[in-house]
């Protein structure tokens, strides 16, 4: 089984210096060409570009069903559309994605989605990080990742950190 990601989890985790969590948790990720373009080519000079570009555990895979991507593009950007299509084509175990509309479309196709906060929670459960709060704070204040106050408090409560 494969795990596919769109740009957001890579960029968000790179901004807080934790892209390595993805490798440690999942060993290998698949990304479509549009995600490579968004992260590496459009992200020149941004956090995480070098880490992703040099990561041998991230494999770029082209999309076969261009028509499916085209239909998703009515609601999604290229990376999100291709990530969902790639997850479907590879029968991925799950899709790493945070964007609400993308997740709704993925769920329609019975794809399981995990977001950055889910990655952090899994990392804590597996002992890769001790606390989730510092990373939630970095996501909010350093990476510009929007986390509502209610979600923030709920995650801390669920992780026993309130």
Written description of the protein model:
The protein is mainly α. The protein has two domains: 3-116, Rossmann fold (3-Layer(aba) Sandwich), CATH 3.40.50; 117-158, no CATH class. Helix content is 54%, strand content 10%. The protein contains ten helices and five strands; from the N terminus they run E-H-H-E-H-H-E-H-H-E-H-E-H-H-H. A three-stranded parallel sheet has the order 1-4-5. A two-stranded parallel ribbon has the order 2-3. Strand 4 (94-96), helix 7 and strand 5 form a beta-alpha-beta unit. The longest helix has 12 residues, at 78-89. The protein starts with a strand and ends with a helix.
Sketch the topology as an H/E string, one letter per element: EHHEHHEHHEHEHHH
Helix percentage: 40-55%
Rg (CA only)? 15 Å
Structural class: mainly alpha
**Second-tier CATH architecture of the largest domain:** 3-Layer(aba) Sandwich
Q: What is the topology, as strand order, of the major beta sheet?
A: 1-4-5
Oligomer: single chain
**Spatial separation of the terminal alpha carbons:** 35 Å
β-sheet strand percentage = 5-15%
CATH topology of the largest domain: Rossmann fold
Number of helical elements: 10
Question: Which key phrases capture this entry?
Answer:
162 residues, mainly alpha, Rossmann fold, 3-stranded parallel beta sheet, two-stranded parallel sheet, 10 helices, globular
How does the SSE layout of this entry go?
Blueprint: E1 3-5, H1 7-15, H2 20-26, E2 29-32, H3 33-41, H4 49-53, E3 58-61, H5 66-72, H6 78-89, E4 94-96, H7 100-108, E5 113-114, H8 116-125, H9 133-141, H10 149-158
Parallel strand pairs: 1-4, 2-3, 4-5
